[in-house]
Amino acid sequence: MSLEAPEPELDVGETPDGDLDYDELADLLGEHVLDREEHVNAEGFVIRPDSVETVLATLKEEAGFDHLSCLTAQQYGDRYESIYHLKKYDDPTQELSVVVPTASEEPVSQSAAGVFDTAIWHEREAYDLVGIEYEDNPDLRRILLPETWQGHPLSNDYNQDQPQIVPLREHANPMEKRTQVPDRSDTMFINIGPHHPATHGVLHLETVLDGEQVVDVDPDIGYLHRCEEQMCEQGTYRHQIMPYPDRWDYISAGMLNEWSYARAAEDLADIDVPEYAQVIRTMAAEMSRIAAHMLAIGTFALDIYGDFTAIFMYSITDREKLQNLLEDLSGQRLMFNYFRLGGVAWDLPEPREQYFQKVRDFCEYMPGRLEEYHNLLTSNELFQMRVLDTGILPPEEARSYGCTGPVARGSGIDVDLRRDDPYGYYDELSWDVITDDGCDNFARALVRLKEMEQSARIIEQCVDVLEDWPEDEREIQSNVPRTLKPDHDKEIYRAVEGAKGELGIYIRSDGTDRPGRFKIRSPAFCNLQSLEVMAEGEYIPDMVAALGSLDIVLGEVDR
Amino acid sequence: MTLAETISSALGLEGAVGQFVGGFIGAAIVGTFILANAAVAGPWAKRKITAAFTDRIAVDKLGPLGIGIIIPDAVRLISKELIVPKGVDRPAWDIAPLIIASSAILGFAVIPMGQVGPVEFQLADPEVGLAFVFAVASIASVGLVMAGYASNNKYSFLGGLRAVAQNLAYEIPLILTGISVVIFAGSLQLSEIVATQQQSLVELGPVAIPAWFAIVNPFAFILFLAANMAEVGRNPFDIPEAPTEIVAGFQTEYSSVYFVLIYLGEFVHIFLGGAIIATIFLGGPAGPGPAWLGLLWFLVKIWGVFLLTQWARSALPRVRIDQLIEIGWKGMLVLAFANLFVTAVIVGVLAPL
User: Fold this and answer.
1) ipTM score here?
2) Rounded to a whole number, what is the distance in Å from the CA of B160 to chain A's nearest CA?
3) CATH label of the domain that carries residue A90
4) Average pLDDT of the residues in B74-87
5) d(CA A100, CA A80)
6) How far apart are CA A217 and CA A211, in angstroms?
7) A407: which residues sit within 8 A by CB, 6+ positions away?
8) Taking CA atoms, what residue in B is nearest to A194?
9) pLDDT at position A1, please?
10) Residue B67 in contact with residue B47, Cβ under 8 Å?
11) A115 in a domain, yes or no?
12) B243 touches chain A (CB under 8 A)
């Protein structure tokens, strides 16, 4: 008997050293592949609109592309185009784009909903904003804009000046039944939100109850939609886009969001980032992550306990400490705007020793504090009674719904872009990816608590590195041209590990200093879609708990 | 002499007129006294206690320790607009807050609160005192259902249904546990129950441990405390309101004075729960020192129970509706019957031997 680990089975198209052999993938798909495009992150296979399901199913079953990361839709002069960004949960660096062009006159494409559940919402968004219709999508209606909206805002022929005032008689009755449940006399339809204490913002859950049990839940989002994508398309790469990411996940996770844009744009325009700046970025990002998780834990406890208890106050107190650190660093408490393409805005605050001391004090204080959270929360029997085995999200479902971040890791999926697709300074540091096989509300909360500990470890190591950095090598920004004009038709999809999961940006350059298409893959958007899996059949309080454990931020869901 | 009798004799009135006038003025005094306690509890003590549990400061600007906030808060609450939603079922919707508030106050009619000078601070002392207290206190459930059903709001409706389910599940163990005390005392009359607890259980040198039923039967005491928590709808049993689930339950649609009445009713209800606990388990107004300190001891005891409810609110997660019903019917009811049975055996079979 050999003690060697068995050779891992390779998917079709996977080389033994973990790269992709696109030729082999093209062979697998055979005649479905009409053309092949080069994107910066991966190759794009152009396919016919009526073979979407076959191609994606083949890629999922045989080539192991089990993660539909994102769907980008856009309109060119002569055609519409949907790009399915595929990845693997096992190795997110193996990427493949499936490009589906459709005719301008009749933008109809086959739906991928039969292969990936997450496609339902992504395609709804594409239909809503761009106007591509997806045949066989079980639920193709607007998702972000009101149902009466006229036109598709990101399409070329959209008339900005057209009034959107719709007379009441033409307006769809919001109370009209839209849920799939037959109208039975023993069920009750109830609108939870958009103004409700437990919806964490302006989320509207159209819920059908049978007594106290949830029969059907349909999240209605878009109340906080600002068309951030279009706003980013109107800004110049160099400076004008960076402030926007702060406004997606505004729960002090701004640094992480900024990094997603920075990473995509830097890779698109071939900008190098000095290592010193990467260390600062890593430290700032992890501070943001702890702050975001603190709020997640605090509000989750609030949902379970039902009152503003000590846990909420403690977590807000601790988040405040981080915000002070981030304020010292960036000058801002929430909308940091600290990252720049090619580095960060400015160096660490002077006197440096004092700042390092503050950060170190926090890192030392953190483990004891987390112990207290565990005492108050996870080892509380009543709390366990409430959250254990509720809001179950099995790993297969989590994959199909494109869940990432703590939600996926709470379902036992070992995925973390910081480790799997390294960026910044993460691969130089020692830290662990936390997973939990519980698949329930408890597991997701536990993962967040443990992740904070790891983040504190990362911050501490960053401080060690920064302290020893020679004074004359502290380069905070590389030399970046004042105006960036990436090559025409250069496309990229890049993601970072945000507080909620995979935060990805797709940028297509049209040769000017502004993006031709800017698409945000929001982790909270994808995670929220899995609420129906967690909530249906459970009691209302469990649905509220599941919602709390998803940790959505409506600014990021609606963008 | 009860408070009512004292007043009528002081006024020189006799017969039915004397009873009526004495009872009326006495009720006004007791009611005012209780409402004053609720006023301190609601806008001020609750905030201060919760703040202490959660590392905050809370009100501290007006008066010593911020106690002056009661006045602006009262003005604020009363001067708010009363919004009557479309389609509410009047007058049920208007009567519900009154029922909730009055049923709780009514219970205090028979509670012996100790001596003030020569006068017993107790409005009436009927022979069925304990039964009366339980009876009027549970009228509040009717108010909750009315409020929930009449509000024409699905959240209120859910809250109303939850309130009924909860009260049914917890009132039976509550009363059964109360009955075990009655078996010990041999009377439903509250003054009698208090008097029974005055005897010494054991003498430890100069200190005499009184035969308070909490000491005689601590199991029943804890059972009663827990059931009472559900009865007054506080954490972990605050599911009829459950803000994070059903907004505010039965009181979702109430504003201004109606809201104040419901809120007030809840606080008085907590105090009534405390008063029952103090009376049947903690020796009523008994305590060390002279007899005229009785009212003070009584207040200490009911505020102790209030503190306990606020502590639970800051520390315990809310249980789910199915768990709540399960705890009530499968756990506490069985324990309450066991307690009743054992008490009956001890008192009826073993004690005479």
Assistant:
1) 0.80
2) 12
3) 3.30.460.80
4) 87
5) 8
6) 14
7) A393, A398, A444, A500, A501, A527, A530, A549, A550, A551
8) B247
9) 47
10) no
11) yes
12) yes
